[in-house]
Amino acid sequence: MAKTTTKGFRFSLGTRFFLATVAIAVVAVGAAVAVTSVLGTRIARGAVSRVLERSGTLQETFQERNLNYLRLVARLFADSPPFAAYVAEAIANNDPLSLNDQLEERKADLGYDLAIVLDPAGRVFARTDEVSSGRDDLSGEPLVLEALNSDYGEAYGTWVSRGRLYYAAAVPIGAGGLLQGFLIAGAAIDADAALELRTIGDGEVTFVVHAPEGPTFAVTTLEQRLADALRQQLRERPQLLDAALYGEPRELELGGRRFLALVHPLAGATDETVGSVVSLASLDEQLAPYRRIQRTLLAVGLAAVVVAVVLALFLKRRVSHPLTRLADAAQKAAAGDYDQHIVAAGGDEVGRLAEAFDTLLSDLREKRDMEAYITELARNVPEEEGAAAAVEDMVPAEGREMALVGVELRGYSERLAQAATPREALDRLAAGIRFVVQTIAGFGGKVQAVAGHRVVAGFAGPRHTERALAAAAAVLAGAETLRRASTVTAFGTAAPAADGVSTAVALASGPLVSGSVVWESRPEHAVAGRPVDELENLLRVARAGSLWFSRFARDELREVLAASGAEPKEHRNPITQEPIFALAGETAARLVSHGELTATRDLTAVTSTASPMTTLSSVGPGSQLGDRFKIISQLGAGGMGVVYKAKDYSLDELVALKMLKAEVWNDPQRLGRLKEELKLARKIAHPNVLRTYDFGELGGVPFISMEYVRGITLRRLLDQSGRLPLSAGLRLARQLCRGLAAAHAQKVLHRDIKPENLIVEHVGNVKLMDFGIAQRLERRATPSEPGQIVGTPYYLAPEQLQGREADERSDLYATGVVLYELFTGKLPYPVTGNVMQIISVKMKEAPTPPRQHWETMPEELERIILRCMARQPDERYPDAEALLRELEGLRA
What we know:
Oligomer: single chain
CATH superfamily of the largest domain: PAS domain
Distance between the termini: 39 Å
Radius of gyration: 50 Å
CATH architecture of the largest domain: 2-Layer Sandwich
Number of domains: 4
Structural class: alpha+beta
Number of strands: 31
Number of helices: 25
Largest sheet: 8 strands, mixed
CATH topology of the largest domain: Beta-Lactamase
């Protein structure tokens, strides 16, 4: 059913923009006025509250000051022996008038307003505010009662006497160790005291006495009209003086004006409340400046609205046109048309929007091209077939000179038959094969096939026949190790040793063709040529414990054998009647220590690409590893171990499980370093980094569990296509830099960046993987021995090849080599051979300019690649973030 859209009357975008601008201006002015009102009130209340708090603090300070002074004055009198004697005599003679005269004489000098002398029972004997000699009993007054009951006979606090408020202190009068009575000294809380508080505290003050008939004013600084209004408020709202609300500001309206009031208690000698101090500050006076600001803001705002109307008319015309173009482009992009280019006019917001939209279109083009590229390549990649389907990379076919070494562990024919269980038999076989494979790998050999108890390995490259001889001799020399071993440790199983194993070794050389052949959608490695037939014939007739040569291999090794004093004995092959040659086991074993052959091990230590066994003993599709993993299929093998696709029951998801080789777990120092670096790698959480989950052991064999990603390596992509399209390559390069920046942010150096360690998902996302030789940035350790360079020579920075410190810029060098290969399909140095040749070329020659391989490569991209590959680290980018910024500036 077709979708219909009913269109009614609608304002144009420009008109709506104009109206919106005016509305925003009006709302902004109104909001500003409202906010100013709210904030002004809040600020004014805060200012008034501070005035009240200051007034309360001052009142407490005044009270403490006056009480301390009165205590001092009272003690000055009471502690004077003459005065005490005089009081005793006056009381004895019942002569209060003379005592009154003396208290009045000292009144002006000592600054008290009231003085009272009491007899020891608390009755008045003399007081300055009356002349009569009445004997009022004050023993029930809180101030006097506290003095009578106190251990020291002292008391002080606020006191109400005959309706007046005093700060008062009572002290004992003694003469000759006898109590003669008490002296009370008081300072009246009067208008002068209230005015002093108002002057300093900037607020009005009212002292209130809590009388039985209700609150009465002792003194106030308020004008009469406001004082009357406050009295009325206190009568109508007695809760204002509630002790529970002391210290809480309350708003009052007095005479049409708003005040904030704060009530503080006046405490007597026994902490009873005898009155209150009401501090007031005018809220209207504090708000007056903000009212003026509001009026000014309103006037300015109205003027701003007028200006906004004018500007809106101008912007209406300026903005609507480019926005219309962007809307048209967005509609085309929604329909799948990403091949547009938006020109950003100017640096304003519309220009930035156009630039951002153009960048988005570029990203969409790159994503589309990457997905199309991966989809096209995927048509030529074998499909997975069940749980055991092969997912290893196809090996390109090639023809070259090679040497083949064949090893037969013949003793297993009888020993395996004697095994108690099939598992024990396979564990014994695995132990022997593992020894042979690891020995051959040490000399740069690559296992071509494992059939039963026979291992066939190939050697290619410089001095390949000599390395094959050294490996064959080492196998014979090490066979004694197998015979002496007491146990063979397989995966989670201790099996009887493969003692008594007899070993036959044969060597042939010549031109061979090798590569992958496919049947039933499963790629398998194959080697074909004359040396294969010769090796097969040699192993048929070779006697155990000897090293056998084909005629061509013997001819190639004639000088090496002669130099070592080992002359093979000639025989006749009874099957083919061809001459064959043999060395006794003891003679062959001596070749291992020969200097010329020993050097082959050092030469190839870093160039070896040999893989370990394709499976570990007892591990394969369908295997159950403890209660945690179930092996689904083998994904591949590398220098550290074998990688399987597995179900992790603890995570309830698929993982890539790497089981480490024996030489890794048998080297405590290497294993400890690997654990340390993997702990750090686990912290790297980024979409462009393959996540490391766990490191542990199962049955004594260390494992690493990682995120499982269905995809293909960049090496496989390059082998298929030669180079990537510009848009797809830029997308991949930026993702590589983001992943590398995330690793560096966690202080992790990768140290082995190469196409084999980049996996591309089917949707085009790239993940950096294999942190097996990573190290912490803080450590930056150099190799401990010459030749022990870690990594792949073609991608290593010059400082790494020279054994110097590596840092972030070393990873950037490797990234530059990957980018070179990514956009050209070639390596920057057309050199093959050993490490010394690679080092020599990298130290002396500049890389071939990328544009020689791809003439239309953007010059800026070539500059970026060559800067990454600068010979000196200081000439490269300082970090991955800087390289990423440069790449983000390039668009296809």
